[in-house]
Amino acid sequence: MKRRTILRLAGAGLLVGSLLGGSAFAEGIAGAPAPFDKGGVKVALVTFISAGDFFQAYQAGAQKQAKELGIDLQIFSGRQDAAAQREQVEQAINLGVQGIIIDHGQPEALKDVAQKALDAGIKVVAFDVNLDNPKIPQVEQSDHELAKAALGQALADNGTAFNAGYVYVAGFAPLDRRNEIWEEVKKANPGIVEKAHFGAVNDTTATSTADQAKAAFRANPDITVVFAPYDEFARGVKLATDELGISDKVKIYSADVSTADITEITAEGSPWVATAATNPAVVGAVSVRAVAKLIAGEDPGHNIVVKPVLITQKDLRAAGIKTVEDLDAKLPAFGQSDAATAPWIPAAK
Ligand code: SR1
Question: Which atom of ligand 1 is nearest to the CA of 49?
Answer without folding.
Answer: 1
